[in-house]
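Q: How would the structure tokens look for this protein?
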Amino acid sequence: MINPLKDLRDFMFRGVMFESEANKFQSAGIQVGADQGQAEERLLSEALTPFGVSRRNNAIEMARLYAVLHCFENEVRSLIRERLEEKEGPNWADKLPRNVKSYAESRQKSAFTDSWLEGEKADILGFIDFGHLSSIILENWKHFEDLIPSQHWLKQRMDELEKARNFIAHNRMLLPSEFHRMYMYIADWNRVIGL
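A: Here is the predicted structure in token form.
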């Protein structure tokens, strides 16, 4: 007699046992199952195949830079949030410049009401443009002056990074010297901030 509930339970138990054993092998450095990195690389390669080699190479180079910028921009947002929350308390968002805060609130409201996108919507700093980040820090300089060498240092780097970031966001290719400058500025920031 077939018992579907028992068969399902046995199947699930075998899966849990296999996963437990597979984790032991993986922690010992033995690959079990498909290599996710290779699978992702193959999928990317297939998606890029219709395009010319030069365009693909440029896209991959720009994707690396975009990944670094993504991390950098969100680290700056985290620093702002952490510093203002630490120094100003739970109402830290009230310390954002008035025009920046109203701009972000407007974009946040649109995201909640008009958007089909389901990404992160609760963090007000996620709705602030890159260019606003330095103005928030400058407006609250007393909370950042122990970390950042000078207001000029901050403004100069953030302005140049913003121009390059916008270039990248609109899918335009940068020159090698511009790549180098962006990586250098981000490395400077990371060293100064302690990342």
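Residues 53-88 form the longest helix (36 residues).

The helical segments are 4-27, 36-48, 53-88, 98-114, 130-139, 151-169, 176-193.

Upvote if useful.
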